[in-house]
Amino acid sequence: MQALWMILGAFSFATMGVGLKVASGSFNTFELVLYRGVVGVLVMGWVLRAHGTPFRTAVPLMHAWRSVVGGVSLVAWFYSIAHLPLATAMTLNYTSGVWVSAFILGGALLYGKAQRQGPLMSTVLLGFGGVILMLRPTIDQNQLFAGLIGLLSGVSAALAYIQVTALGKLGEPVERTVFFFALGGVLTGAVGLLFTGFTPWAHITWQAAAWIVPIGLTASLGQWCMTRAYSHGHTLVVASLQYLGIVFAALYSLLLFGDDIALIGWLGMGLIVASGVAATFLRERELPDTPAEEH
Predict the structure, then answer these.
(1) Which end of the chain is more exposed for a tag (fewer CB within 10 A), N or C?
(2) Is 195 exposed, middle or buried (0-12, 13-18, 19+ CB in 10 A)?
(3) Nearest residue to 89 via CA among 41, 21, 140, 141
(4) Which residues contact 60 (CB under 8 A, 6 or more apart)?
(5) Long-range contacts of 281-286 (CB under 8 A, 24+ apart)
(6) Predicted TM-score of the model (pTM)
(7) How remote is the C-alpha of 86 from its chain's centroid?
């Protein structure tokens, strides 16, 4: 059953990407982050009330840090979706699994415990090789800045995942974690809009406006499904299935947007997926207490 939750979560995030791609034609990145957060707060607030889960938390600073790094990841991810092919932006965000492994590897090297980390190092290098291949087409199409921002979304998402795992170990309910993350998105978007301002309504198309609520709903559904899957499912199975999000995004890119992704870009996607799955397997076998990815 947890596998089905992960598949639904991956599909929800890819569908959210479609909405962001359309809506970014009228709204700026911080507006989209704000609106996504507002819908998420309303949805998850209702879920908290329905489950009788209190809003009050014993670890507010942990939620605050998770919201900060998660907010950075959202802004970077939404920006990259607006300026890159959907499949490319989605894949760069999914490098989070590679970055988590890189952080673990760095810690092992720092504390002199790198003797058994050769296989993990190989998967990290494989993943970074995929990143290089993914970024090469962005250079050819003058999209390097957007590609680097997309990569930043993966790095910051990895930091957020580590915090999510720590919250889970403390017994924080899934719905409360997702609620505070949505609240953090509202604050992140609001702060950004102090500098960018809102888009005049005269410049907004009805197609873009129609996606505002669905973006928040699919994001909340995806967040809840993936968090639930990781909380109750087998880490390796769940983490492997999350990469279906890239498959869904690739299909959307081809069928809805006609994105032209070079062969080298597709190869990079494959390397990143392979390295992510392999790294998850190694972390589960050697380091069972390390964090799992959750978007």
Answers:
(1) N
(2) exposed
(3) 21
(4) none
(5) 281/236, 282/101, 282/119, 282/120, 282/123, 283/100, 283/101, 283/104, 283/120, 284/235, 284/236, 286/116, 286/120
(6) 0.87
(7) 13
- pLDDT for residue 269: 87
Task: Return left, alpha or beta for 17; rule: phi > 0 is left, psi -120 to 50 is alpha, else beta.
Answer: alpha
What angle (nearest 5°) sits at the alpha carbon of residue 126, between those of residues 75 and 3?
A: 65
Q: Sorting pLDDT into bands at 50, 70 and 90, what band is 218?
A: very high
CA distance 48 to 274: 37
SS3 19: helix
What are the tokens at 157? 């998402």
Per-residue pLDDT at 37 exceeds 90? yes
